[in-house]
Amino acid sequence: MMRKPDRRAIRSAAKVFVTIAVFVMTAVTCLAYLNNTKVNADSEVTISAVSTKTDVGPGDLLTINVVASSFPGITEFGPIVFNFDFDKAEYVSYEQGKDLSNYLFTETQTDGVVTVTGSDQMMGISTDGSGDEVTTASFESQDRVILFTIMIRIRPEASGDINCWISEVGNFSSPDETINASIGSGVTLPINKNGISSDATVAILKVRESTITPEFNQNITDYTCYVERSVEEVQVNVTTTNLWAAVVIEGTQQLSLGENIVTVDVTAQDGVSHMRYTIHVIRKESDIPDNASLVDKNGITYTFLDSPEDLSVPDGFVQTTIYINGYSVPAYVKDGVSSVLIYLFDGTQSPDLYFYNSTTKTILPYDPENTVIETSKVLKMAEVPEGVFIPDEFSPAEFNYGSMILSGYVNAEGDFICYLQDENGKADFYHFDFTDGSISLYRFADKKAEILYSYLFDVFLVIAIIEAVIITITVYIVRRMVSGRTNPRPKRV
């Protein structure tokens, strides 16, 4: 005989099952929430001043690194105030930490005080699952990070100890957590008077407008850098570790294409210790990007070429680098002139200089014998077309314009005019003002209109005279008539 199931037992089992299911779902939901939610926690960052030396002497260069114990995704920090004994050292230079190249630093310094702030310029901004913006710092590290480096020079008369310390750290901001920044240790070093220095090392070695490789280290003596083809000399900046070390730099001028050797010879104060740093300066063979070309409004293709070293350019034009048609190319520019000079090859004629106007997209050959360069316009001598009327009062003449001889016309008043063509191909007469050297468009006076105006003036003058005579006669007659009525003549008896 089959027993009926106990309803109470079934209900109890169901309750247990539901309870377990609810617990499991709650646990899964909590885990998912925890996995997708960032937990904000406090981070401790300590800012300290650290020296690369254990002692210094008068005239020595002292390098102090301002370091953070960690860098937990910081987007802004500062102001950090660095101090040093100004009566014992002088400020030399400041350098941003290499790990923080994505950050914009500002630095100010007064006597013995250097203030630095930094902000992340490459932070990432994205959205999470809920559509909220999430900011991510471009750099973070759990290890010690150099924020910036300060170099100071021990004064020749200094003695005792030199002190460097952090007096303020400002605020450290992170999008994910609260940053508690505190001041760490400073630097105190004895100033030892060890007599004549034997230090011939260099603390700073830079080539202006270039970067040396490998990264500078005072114990590495061989470097390489690259400069543009247009660069014919380089400026090498050297700061010796000891104030009294002597420096001789050679090979910085009249650079040849290809490799050039620049030497930096350093002799210590003792006159014996010596170091030579060598920089291999590679002057590029070409400044022109591959396949760089330009098409004018007529469809003619021009190829960019490197200009010859003996190329003659107009007075006032200086060489620079500009972007044309998406290429960074060398060009010659002059203040006030909108067109630039570039060295081109049209595929048929010999390569030469051309004027290029980026606004009108026109290309005009430069001919030094018949090109007039004025503010915001370039004009080229042209022949006067047939049928163009030149008044009789103008006679052929020539005018010396700089090194050019312009052929034109002059009148009795000394007005010199010349027929010129602009960059757009439009030609017209231009007037040259001898007083200030300016050039302006010239328009001939309309003689027909002048004769007509003169004739009309004469006609109206005659009419006016006739009208005056008629009015005068009329007035005279009227007066006679009135006089006769008021004063009648007596009759004879």
Description:
The chain is mainly β and 493 residues long. Helix content is 14%, strand content 42%. The protein folds into four domains: 149 residues, Immunoglobulin-like; 82 residues, Immunoglobulin-like (Sandwich); 74 residues, no CATH class; 62 residues, no CATH class. The protein contains two helices and 33 strands. The strands form eight sheets. Strands 27, 28, 29, 30, 31, 32 and 33 form a seven-stranded antiparallel β-sheet that branches. Strands 3, 5, 6, 10, 11 and 13 form a six-stranded antiparallel β-sheet that branches. Strands 4-9-2-1-12 form a five-stranded mixed β-sheet, with no helix packed on it. It is elongated. The relative contact order is 0.08.
* Class from secondary-structure proportions: mainly beta
Total beta strands:
33
- The amount of beta strand, in percent, is 35-45%
Q: If you average the pLDDT, what whole number results?
A: 85
Helices and strands, with pairings:
Elements: H1 7-36, E1 43-51, E2 61-68, E3 76-84, E4 89-96, E5 103-110, E6 113-120, E7 124-127, E8 133-136, E9 145-154, E10 160-168, E11 171-173, E12 179-183, E13 187-191, E14 202-207, E15 222-227, E16 236-240, E17 246-250, E18 258-267, E19 274-283, E20 293-295, E21 301-304, E22 318-324, E23 327-333, E24 340-345, E25 352-357, E26 362-365, E27 371-374, E28 377-381, E29 395-401, E30 404-410, E31 416-421, E32 427-432, E33 439-441, H2 447-486
Parallel strand pairs: 1-12, 15-19
Antiparallel strand pairs: 1-2, 2-9, 3-6, 3-10, 3-11, 4-9, 5-6, 7-8, 10-13, 14-16, 17-18, 18-19, 20-21, 21-24, 22-23, 24-25, 25-26, 27-28, 28-31, 29-30, 30-31, 31-32, 32-33
